[in-house]
Amino acid sequence: MNNIDEELLKTHLHGNMQILRHHVYEYQKGIRHLILHTSNITLEDEIISLLEKKNVSYLIRSSSNQKINVFFGDRRCIDILERIGEKSLSDFTDEEDFILGIMLGYDQIKQCERYIKRKEKEDIAENKVVRINNEKAMVENAMIGITC
Question: According to the model, what pLDDT value does residue 123 have?
Answer without folding.
Answer: 80
